[in-house]
Amino acid sequence: QVQLQESGPGLVNSSQMLSLTCRISAGSITTGDYYWSWIRQPPGKGLEWIGYINLSGSTFYSPSLKSRTSISRDTSKNQFTLQLSSVTPEDTAVYYCARVLRYYNGGYYQQSWDYWGQGTQVTVSI
Prior knowledge:
Shape: globular
Oligomer: single chain
Number of strands: 11
């Protein structure tokens, strides 16, 4: 079964960079029609999608975070990373990585968020 695990510092200072890594077991970031995504959930709020990278290395980011976001991959280690620059306390959240399967059904593209990491808490200090 596919497993994903987030890792990285749990505390980051304001104006500095948040950096997280998602390691994948029993799967490959270069095999299959998958999009490898980052999502976060601030305390008391809903989920917010950050961006993704696919098997070819193409990326796409949320417009509200695009200027501060970079997602990359390391195929030799079967992992991908998130970098979020110039962080503020508003970036405090639980951060998740997830696998997304995009498929065509009934004339439209749909997606299935089939595997998630357990999430990791990141706190940005004032």
